[in-house]
Design brief:
It holds the Pfam family Amino_oxidase. This is FAD-dependent oxidoreductase. The protein has 14 helices and 20 strands. The protein is α/β, with parallel strands linked by helices. It has two domains: about 5-40 and about 185-260 and about 370-425, FAD/NAD(P)-binding domain; about 85-175 and about 265-355, Polyamine Oxidase, Chain A, domain 2 (Alpha-Beta Complex). The longest helix is centred in the C-terminal third of the chain and has 23 residues, at about 400-425. α1 (about 15-25) runs parallel beside α7 (about 185-195), α2 (about 65-75) packs across α14 and α9 crosses α13. The protein binds flavin-adenine dinucleotide (FAD). Flavin-adenine dinucleotide binds near residues 34, 36 and 235.
Length: about 425
């Protein structure tokens, strides 16, 4: 026998939780089916040996991200300002790092000014475009490292129009690593799930969604659910693994097939003290080579001195072939070159490799990797009748961020409420 609800939300990441919270507040009978035994999706926390809780996935926020900031306040979380005082290090050392980064930022602005719908850039990758730009080699390397670090795919695979459209929606003026949450941002997802009062069912991977005349049936393990509307709040690659009956329309199937998951490894490296500060360094390091590598200071009360290191894009893909000890050694060696030999004296290193993650794909976000698939996001947002798709990737603002997930979830909830209003007419 199927359990009946008004709306079923598949996935308890920030998108699914935000959509469900809004629907529940407006009196809808909503159930959230989550594959994993925990909520939060790409926001995940771990307890270290001494009891400190740390975010191993999504972590940073800034004042411009108004929706997540409002939730952080509403749930009484502690905001910690990311320590940034001191010099920023660029690796390997180059002659004029400030000039290279300023040039790279202007390049990014020039790219954003392109029209993503312009047919002239339709079949062009970011690498094609970059090769044609009149910039210094160091600025081109800085640009490439930033893009591969943030979008977590090699620039040769990223469509130029996709990056333009995506980057235009990331509008923060404050640094995106302005703050993090002392209790972990994952605890915010847990609080939101708790506020849903038993409506979130974990350990329920959805394998099949079947559209019937007035209802949709959702198979999760040995349980069958039915609802008037279903919101698939999972990243596109994860959505493409769900079986749909009848098959989704061809355009929608194609729109789901053009995404690839990013690749990212996040490492927390702890030290007896923040030794970099004694040398006037902020602990923030950006590597031009290897591309996509970045570190910053996340020291705080209760955790002590610590750096977080992001290994993104091609380097994370290459790191798949490394034994864990070799990866840790590589991270410590890079930090030692950038911040001094004391970096080798880490007291602990905790690595979370997201690459190929079973439920979330692998990176901050999935990205479209088909140079001609300009309509993929619109087709997915339109959904198929009673089945809708939402995730941070499809957000009108801050795609690829927690803020984007919250916005995407709320937009989808509004659309479902409007559709229910139509049903009632
Ligand atoms: C290492 C890392 C660092 C990051 N850092 C930041 C940061 O500092 N700041 C920031 O704003 N963002 C950051 N992000 C990105 C941010 O975490 C994501 O954009 C956001 O959490 C995505 O939310 P979502 O709900 O759209 O998707 P997800 O969080 O992926 O949620 C989808 C949920 O659906 C579930 N699911 C998948 N398939 C099924 C199925 N078939 N049935 C049932 N459930 C299913 C998954 O288990 C998951 O819980 C980071 C991400 C990573 C991986």
């Amino acid at each position: 026998m199927a359990q009946h609800h008004d709306v079923i939300v598949v996935g308890a990441g920030f998108t699914g939780l935000s959509a469900a919270a809004m629907l529940a507040e407006r009196g809808f009978d909503v159930a959230v089916l989550e594959a994993q035994m925990r909520v939060g999706g790409r926001a995940e926390a771990h307890t270290l040996a001494d009891g400190a809780r740390v975010d191993k996935g999504g972590q940073f926020v800034c004042d411009d991200m108004t929706n997540v900031m409002a939730l952080i306040r509403r749930y009484g979380k502690t905001l910690v300002q990311t320590p940034v005082e001191g010099a920023f290090v660029v690796q390997p050392e180059i002659d004029a790092p400030d000039r290279a980064y300023a040039e790279s930022r202007s390049l990014r602005l020039r790219m954003r000014a392109l029209d993503p719908r312009d047919p002239a850039i339709g079949g062009m990758s970011v690498a094609d475009w970059l090769a044609a730009q009149p910039v210094s080699t160091d600025a081109a390397k800085a640009f490439r490292s930033t893009v591969e670090g943030l979008w977590c795919r090699p620039i040769g695979e990223l469509p130029l129009w996709y990056l333009v459209s995506n980057d235009r929606r990331i509008t923060n003026r404050q640094s995106e690593i302005e703050y993090f949450v002392g209790e972990t941002i994952h605890s915010l997802a847990e609080d939101m799930a708790a506020g849903l009062d038993g409506r979130v069912l974990t350990g329920r991977p959805v394998t099949r969604i079947s559209a019937r005349a007035e209802r949709v049936q959702v198979q999760a393990g040995d349980l069958l659910f039915s609802a008037r509307h279903v919101l698939v709040a999972v990243p596109p690659v994860a959505a493409s693994r769900i079986g749909f009956e009848p098959d989704l329309p061809a355009a929608l199937r194609r729109a789901l097939s053009v995404w690839k998951s990013g690749a990212v490894i996040k490492a927390l490296v702890r030290y007896p003290r923040p030794f970099w500060r004694q040398r006037g360094l902020s602990g923030m390091v950006s590597w031009l080579d290897p591309s996509g590598l970045f570190a910053c200071d996340v020291s705080r009360e209760g955790l002590g001195a610590a750096l977080v290191v992001f290994v993104g894009g091609p380097l994370a893909i290459a790191a798949q072939a490394m034994p864990p000890a070799a990866l840790e050694e590589m991270i410590l060696a890079k930090l030692a070159t950038a911040l001094g030999e004391t970096a080798r004296t880490a007291t602990a290193i905790a690595v979370r490799d997201w690459t190929g993650d079973a439920w979330s794909g692998g990176g901050y976000s999935d990205t479209v990797c088909d140079l001609r698939a300009q309509d993929a996001e619109d087709v997915l947002r339109a959904g198929a009748g009673r089945i809708r798709f939402a995730c941070s990737e499809l957000s009108p603002s801050y795609p690829g961020y927690i803020e984007g997930a919250i916005v995407a979830g709320r937009v989808a909830a509004e659309e479902i409420m409007a559709a229910v209003g139509q049903d009632a007419l």
